[in-house]
User: Fold these one by one.
Assistant:
Number 1:
Amino acid sequence: MRHKNEINALQQRIKGGQDEQKKNRSLDLEKLLQKYQNIKKELEIKQKMDKLAFEGQFTNKGSSNQSVYMSQM
């Protein structure tokens, strides 16, 4: 009887360790996914800002070129 109790206690400890490991893995996965989403969002914002700045260069140059053209007429 004592042997069975020891085996049951050991099995419960193993199961508890496995459950805790699953919980920790799940939390780690959630953290990684959140980090990925944050980095992705930052990159998307940066890309939009770079695109706007790039397009703005041509818009500003185009309007100044038009002014020069119009003044030459």
Number 2:
Amino acid sequence: MLSRSLYVFLSVYIFVSVVYTSAFLVLCPVLAECSSVFALRFPSLADIPFLGRYGAPSGGLMIYEDNADGRSSSGATRLGETDDLAAHLEAIAADSVLSWPTHRISPMSSDELGTASRQYLMPESLFLSKAFSNSMHPMKIIPFFYRASERFDEDDITITTLVTSNRFEVLQNLAKRYDGPLSVTVHLPVAPDLSPLSASSTLSKNLTALHSLLLRSPALAARADVHVVLSPFPRAFNTWRNVARFLARTTYVLLLDVDFAVCTDWRAPVRALLRAEDGEMARRMRAGSAALVLPAFEYVKAEDGRDHKAFPRDKRTLLDLVRARKVAPFHASWAPGHNSTDYKRFYAARPGEIYRVTTYQSAYEPYVIVKRDAGGWCDERFTGYGGNKAACLFDMYLSGVSFYVLSDHYLIHQSHAYEEEARRNERKYNRKIYSDFKEETCLRYLKRFQDEGVLNTSRGYNAQEECRKIKGIGKIVTQLLDDQ
């Protein structure tokens, strides 16, 4: 009798457990008590942790997808060609709320059983202010202001880039030449107090221009997530780079400046390489310890480099232009910037060859494909021209990421005028920041790798070799290695 009663009890218990668990998993995503809570304003980061494949968060603006009620099937607000974005400015700038579930550990009374799971709520602005705490403030980040209508595999490669309102056409060209996903930071200037936004005629004009761009560019509307940054600072390039990378929704990214044209179809072969189950390069990329370099070129005569449609689409044609001295390595007059790519080896490389960069130096600033969460982000203290992009790659290199060059593929710069006076002035103070930055970054990684016990391994090799070159830091490297 006892065994029968025990059998019945266990059967009922298992049945109730299965029903309860199933109900929780099925209903939780749609119940306010256990779902991620966020304000019904667009756009929000709240949905991002729940994305599996490359899906789009709820909210935000979207082009070419609508129902009778003006909402897309995925919850995005559809704005038509005649909509006035100025009317949406206050809603756009309004804060959203992020949430995390919390659970009590201490014993609960019977009255508390139904309230075991709580939500910790945080304003989205607080989360982003910490994520970008080294940036120039005030600044308002609006993630997924527009979101892509296409879906991509999670292991695809997103081009991350940044653009200002005077370069919208170049962004459109990039979307035409690359058929994969893009994550784009758009900077729009505003007054230092960031308000009242609805009274800013300049902001309204720029938003209208951005919306018009998306309406007339099906490729951009289909494949680009657009994140808006509102701030009074005109050249916070590293912050904008980090925003685009931070909000990319695929495992791998290409860190690219918008002025560079994608000339070859590198996406398919690189994705095949990344998906290979064997192979050292695939293993390194998946581990986040390797980055693939796309060599950069430019036309010798600026006027020849303005029309991207005339750029060579294969390496053989590129080499013909190099031999004719019409095309040269990007910024050849500043050798430290790109010469570590070893262009002579690139010219002579066999089809399909991938070779390692063996002469890295701290001014090297290639355009790389890398795992989104690999080491090395851009130091946001750099604003304006000079050292900003090199700082991104320096941090990445010291974190243990080594660079490998794709010998079949390349990028070409689209010529444009530079703000020469700003470049001269900003390079002066960025030169000092970069000197301090290198020392700080070396000390940070040396200490970290020593504590992890990996300083004298392949992971710590880059930090060892590069930090030895810095006066005063080389002795510290020797001491740390002697102590191991």
Number 3:
Amino acid sequence: MTPAQRATAWFFLVMALLFTLQSVLGGATQHYRADLSSFFGINLAGAFPFNLVRTWHLQLAIFWVAVSYLGAGIFIAPMISGREPRGQKWLAYGLLGALVIVVAGSLLGELLAIHGASDSIWFALQGFEYLDLGRFWQVLLTLGLFSWVALLFRVLRGRLAVEHRGNMPWLFFFAALAIPAFYAVGLLAHPRANFTSTDFWHFWVVHLWVEDFLELFTTLMVAYLFVLLGVVAEAIALRLIYLEVILYSAGGVIGTMHHLYFSGTPVEHMALGAFFSAAEVIPLTFLTVEAWTFLRLGIVQGEQSTKPFPHRWAIMFLMAVGFWNFLGAGIFGFLINLPIVSYYEIGTALTANHGHASMMGVYGMLAAGLALFALRYLMPAARIAAGIQAFGGSRAEPAPGWPHDDARRFHLGLSLVVLLVGDCIVGAVALRNHGLAEFGILGLAAALVTRALARGLAAFARGGRRA
């Protein structure tokens, strides 16, 4: 473990905190759809109105995923190069500190803007979805991302000098470089410029950056993890990477036009956007099948190893990336991207369905998987077991199924608590807004759903223990 790799533990801690905050804000956003005036008697909207909570929810989705990606890149780079230059740890800490300043400053600026205390587009709010933050914070974030690429280059420089530019170390570096390069394109969108031009550059970030270049980095990270773990040959990983590059170049780039149907662009945008958006599910299907075969190959080879494979649950998250890429981005995207459908459904729950399933399903699952991969090195099982014993636990050595059996029991209990709380909230709302008979029907339905989910969770836990 290098010093910079140990420093990434703080990245993953910040990632977890931001994800928790984003989840809480998402719950508040959904509550506002049912009751805009109060939060069960508390005037939450007075301090945190709906548009502020939703803005923060979207911004934090970018921030917590980005923090995980940056930490994972810093963690994996020494594994690729076999070395780490001096001072890398302090540069990593500096990058993390800068990210925290950007997150806090942008959220504060949005709070001031929505409460009418500031109208600055530089320090408060621009008003673009996913680019709500002020331009000053946007510039700082772009510079921070380029600084991250510079940190990676410091580590990879020796390895890159002896590698062909078509091999995986260079592809890893190019994929990392594309993240700040195409995020910087968002600076061409200006809230006081022509709407057609502004919307065009805005959706370069929303679609082309998120759904193409983050996808490419996602594939590189998944493939490299398997190569580094020694369960997949580099030639197989390269084949998957180049397949994604070809398919996304054919469909994803032109498919960006489905965001531009009604913003004043030429009619060709509607024709090309409609076709490639409808056809985008085809390359996603190919990629999902290929990725699934790739992942299964890694799991089978890992199981055949004589040594215990410590990254099983990290791989499960990576498999979830492929599934949600197909369902969330492909199927749910296809349902809303045709022009006649998009005209009527924009802003409805179908848009949120596609956004959540693809953003959390693909990038969120990868962020969690990368964190799990790194934490298995940063927090070995024996060290955690010793810590448990020091605080009064009875287990000096980890049990054979640790930590997965404990994690299953924890998530089972947590899920049941969430279901119980959800039932109470549904019951309170139903009792307030419906008659006694309707309340009884809703209560029965909630009880049946809770029972079914509880049985499913219990069966999952039993199956995990048998495995």
